[in-house]
Design brief:
Layout lengths: L2 E6 L2 E7 L5 H8 L4 E7 L4 E7 L12 E2 L6 E5 L7 E9 L2 E2 L2 E2 L2 E9 L4 H11 L2 E7 L1
Antiparallel strand pairs: 1-2, 1-11, 2-10, 3-4, 3-11, 4-7, 5-10, 6-7, 6-10, 8-9
Length: 137
């Protein structure tokens, strides 16, 4: 389960599961594959898109968590202070919500297609929600 393909809008990426640093998060998300949703512009986190998951309870605690992911370091926040979500950074990001700064579990890292992250971010920002699919390679 070490890699997966992400198709977002017209872009394709390959991502590595961070199994050593975030084993529970990787296992939980792996159980949801294939995962399809919409990617929208983040409201509070800067140059990032997100997938809102509402009150979905994944039963996860913090592991390999950060508030400052680099572009392509995908986070899963399992709720608590804000709703459950996946954060998809494409530029400078400080993970936050209306209640303030958050920390999410860094569980995926884009390894192929990073050069298209900013272009995807601009597409989401200016043209709106994009389909996104996470699936095994």
């Amino acid at each position: 389960m070490s890699e997966l393909r992400i198709t977002a809008g017209s872009f394709e990426f390959v991502a590595r599961f961070e199994e050593e640093a975030a084993p529970q998060t990787c296992e939980t998300f792996g159980g949801l594959l294939p995962f399809e949703n919409k990617l929208v512009q983040a409201r509070w986190s800067g140059e990032a898109a997100w997938i809102p998951l509402g009150d979905l309870d994944l039963g996860l605690s913090f592991e390999n968590h950060t508030s400052f992911p680099a572009p392509g370091e995908i986070l899963l926040y399992s709720g608590g202070y804000s709703e459950t979500e996946i954060l998809f950074p494409y530029g400078g990001t400080r993970f936050a919500s209306i209640v303030g700064q958050l920390a999410g579990n860094h569980f995926l890292t884009i390894t192929e297609g990073r050069e298209h992250l900013r272009e995807l971010g601009q597409l989401v920002l200016w043209e709106g929600a994009q389909d996104i699919v996470f699936e095994r390679t």
